[in-house]
Write a structure and sequence with these properties.
The chain has helices spanning about 10-20, 25-30, 80-100, 120-130, 160-170, 175-185, 200-215, 225-235, 245-280, 285-320, 360-370, 395-400, 420-444; strands spanning about 5, 35-45, 50-60, 65-70, 100-105, 110-115, 115-120, 135, 150-155, 190-195, 240-245, 330-340, 340-350, 375-380, 405-410, 415. The two termini are about 55 Å apart. It contains 13 helices and 16 strands.
Length: about 450
């Protein structure tokens, strides 16, 4: 027998932190959701020990005197305790009736598949919730409130920190490691901001890049105030990462390669002239053939050197516009950490200088920092579960897969329905509402 009641923020946050809960199940996250009303619920055993916590956020359904509820990433407890889950579900039904809540959506942070292999515990939780009367929804793309498929990188906590970092980096795909090095060689660096050092200008730059990304990839972006609120209200567990391009570093590297190729061409031209001089006076047929073969090889190498010289010159011309710009930001991200886990929450990249591979370096920096924070897992967040290469989201899957994390499918989203009529109306109207909203925002 368990007892459930509303609790204070500290009780909620301490339980989630100690029990390796989800950042979305904290008061910090609830504080960011200004348009929602938050309730903090706790469950206690007969000894008076807290065994369950839940952030329940509520939003009024338009034109109805009813609310919709959402428990982001599921109430936090031991789901193996069927009695606890069952009794809390009954409590929520009663709580919802008293507070005019038509339905409550729950999407537990529990895996049902890892690398396309069934996780038996997750399957049991899914069946248990369905048996208790929850409506189950599962999607391949991003139709649910939270992404149903993610990549997660687990760390071997038995290893020393530096060994851990070396091992993690070593397991990246060749392309991923190469692109991280490209980013470093092209003069990219990553600045990290939190509540203590962020400025209004940095928030402006991040939001500008986010808007550019939304326009390019066709998704609706959050307002600037939302990201500012995250930095302030989730502190100290929220950071903003900004990738900065340095023209001088990039120019010096390209110029160094250009100079090297020009010197190489000079050496090859000298060898070509020397070989031609030897050919001029040579009478031995065998030696003539040998010299001609050598000459042909030198001319091929000269042609290759000339192509590289042209390429380096073109690249120098292509970055000339950034010569006098001191602060050129090419990508950014919002990062969260809590309860031993780190999350890449929002990411954005500029249309300019994309060949510098900023997103690869940014991910590696966030992974490194997650390791430094002594976390055991890094979450890359959403990808599509449709692995057809023709899927427009397949590129995102390939990018995140290159970091060699586990491809995870969650148990899905579950609706606890209290008012069937309101629930049916809402679920029918919501998709149309989203389409209308999307069209209106694109016209602005």
């Amino acid at each position: 027998m368990y007892n459930f009641k509303e609790i204070e923020k500290k009780q909620l946050n301490d339980f989630n932190n100690d029990a390796k809960g989800h950042i979305f199940q904290t008061s910090y996250w609830a504080d960011v959701k200004k348009e929602w009303k938050a309730k903090f619920l706790g469950g206690y055993n007969q000894k008076g020990e807290i065994v369950l916590t839940s952030v329940l956020i509520l939003r009024k359904i338009p034109y109805m005197n009813q609310y919709m509820g959402y428990i982001p990433r599921g109430f936090h407890c031991d789901y193996r305790d069927k009695t606890l889950v069952e009794e809390f579900t009954k409590f929520m039904r009663d709580y919802a009736k008293k507070n005019k809540i038509a339905f409550i959506s729950v999407d537990p942070d529990i895996h049902i598949n890892e690398n396309e292999k069934l996780v038996q515990f997750g399957n049991e939780v899914k069946d248990m919730l369905i048996h208790m009367g929850y409506n189950h929804k599962n999607t391949k793309n991003f139709e649910n409130i939270q992404p149903n498929f993610v990549f997660r990188l687990n760390f071997d906590m038995e290893k020393e920190l530096e060994e851990r970092k070396k091992s993690i980096f070593g397991d990246f795909s060749k392309k991923t490691k190469y692109n991280i090095k490209v980013a470093e060689n092209r003069g990219l660096t990553v600045d990290v901001y939190d509540k203590d050092n962020i400025t209004e200008e940095i928030i402006d730059r991040f939001h500008e890049i986010m808007v550019i990304t939304g326009q390019r990839d066709n998704f609706i972006t959050r307002p600037r105030s939302y990201f500012k609120d995250m930095i302030e209200k989730i502190a100290p567990f929220c950071r903003m990462y900004m990738v900065k391009y340095n023209y001088d570093l990039d120019y010096d590297r390209i110029k160094g390669k250009l100079d090297g190729q020009e010197k190489n061409k000079e050496r090859l031209e000298k060898r070509k002239n020397d070989t031609r001089a030897m050919l001029k006076n040579e009478k031995d047929e065998e030696k003539i053939e040998k010299h001609n073969k050598k000459l042909s090889d030198i001319e091929k190498r000269i042609a290759d050197s000339e192509r590289q010289i042209v390429s380096f010159k073109e690249r120098i011309d292509s970055i000339a516009a950034y010569k006098d710009k001191r602060e050129v930001y090419v990508a950014g991200a919002i990062y969260l950490y809590y309860g031993g886990k780190g999350w890449y929450l929002y990411g954005a990249s500029h249309n300019e200088l994309r060949d510098t591979m900023p997103n690869y370096l940014m991910q590696w920096k966030m992974i490194e920092d997650t390791l430094d924070l002594d976390c055991y897992m890094y979450d890359f967040r959403g990808v599509s579960g449709d692995l057809n290469p023709d899927n427009p989201l397949y590129g995102l899957y390939k990018f995140k897969k290159g970091f060699n994390g586990d491809f995870v499918e969650f148990v899905g989203e579950f609706d606890l329905v209290i008012n069937s009529f309101v629930y049916s109306m809402f679920r029918f109207a919501l998709p149309k509402f989203k389409k209308i909203r999307s069209k209106l925002k694109k016209k602005k």
